[in-house]
Amino acid sequence: MSSVFKALSDPTRRKVLEMLRKGPKPAGELADAFPVSKPTMSAHFAVLRDAGLVETERQGKQVIYHLQMSVLEDALFGFAKTFGWERKDDERQPSGLTPSEETHHE
Amino acid sequence: MSSVFKALSDPTRRKVLEMLRKGPKPAGELADAFPVSKPTMSAHFAVLRDAGLVETERQGKQVIYHLQMSVLEDALFGFAKTFGWERKDDERQPSGLTPSEETHHE
DNA sequence: GACTCATTTCGACAATTAGCTAAACGTCTA
DNA sequence: TAGACGTTTAGCTAATTGTCGAAATGAGTC
User: How many helices (H) and strands (E) does chain B have?
Assistant: First the structure.
């Protein structure tokens, strides 16, 4: 839980997650969206991976990143619940993706 | 927004917010709940204040900390909204406090 | 004013973080 | 094998963080 919030505390990493919301993306494409070096981005990816917020899949030469919605969900709403907030049940916004594409559990 | 997530990234500070959820508390009482020095706790309070998550009120010798629910709410659900999540409208859990006590806007 | 209590500020320190370049290392494709 | 893609390591800054003890401040009390 702490690792998730730690991961979310950096704007670059939050933006990566937001990009991933629209669907899985290769590392290079994500990296190109930010004005930092590849090693720096790779470090950000590692933080997200360690927090369980993303998972990787190798597709040929590239490494594809998948957002793990459930982990983000659990951290955010798990914490929110402590404050008496609840989210709408089954009111997840249609993302334009199939449910399997959304989380892409392997 | 970044400052809120930064504030939330520390377990001590998250617990402080949780303690404050039950109502305003003096700095000393909050500090006593953690195995760190007073100056350290004061630094944590400063982070929470800078993020707007808490506000202070002087009451005699002591400084009373109030949770700013709305700020926490906005950050958490503002971010969640980016991912297509919504919270139940007006389904805030009864806290046993009056609405004015909950946020305690001055 | 002096004293006490509560809290913050002040230095200091070690650890962590984000960033860089350069180089090395896998893994796949051509 | 050579290139492309991405990660990792090394070595280096600079800034931030969490922590402390000691001192300073603020507000009430004697």
Answer: 6, 3
Give the domain extent around B13.
2-84
- Domain for residue B89, yes or no? no
Q: Which residues of B55-83 are buried (b: 16+ CB within 10 A; e: fewer)?
A: bbeeeeeeebbbbbbebbbebbbebbeeb
Residue whose entry in the numeric block shows the structure tokens 């805030």: B92
Residue nearest to nucleotide C18 (CA to C1'): A40
Instruction: Answer whether A85 touches B (CB < 8 Å).
Output: yes
Q: Is residue A16 part of a domain?
A: yes
**Is residue A70, in this structure, part of any structural domain at all?**
yes
Structural domain contains residue B71:
yes
Residue B33: give its domain's CATH number: 1.10.10.10
| Minimum CA–C1' distance nucleotide for A13 | C18
Query: Of B52, B91, B97, which Cα lies nearest the Cα of B71?
Result: B52
- CA distances (Å), A61 to each of A26, A30, A65, A97, in order? 10, 15, 13, 24
Count how many domains chain A has.
1
pLDDT tens digit string along A55-92? 999 999 999 999 999 999 999 999 999 998 887 664 55
Q: Give the model confidence (pLDDT) of A4-43 as tens digits.
A: 999 999 999 999 999 999 999 999 999 999 999 999 999 9
Q: Tell me, yes or no, if A80 comes closer than 8 A to chain B by beta carbon.
A: yes
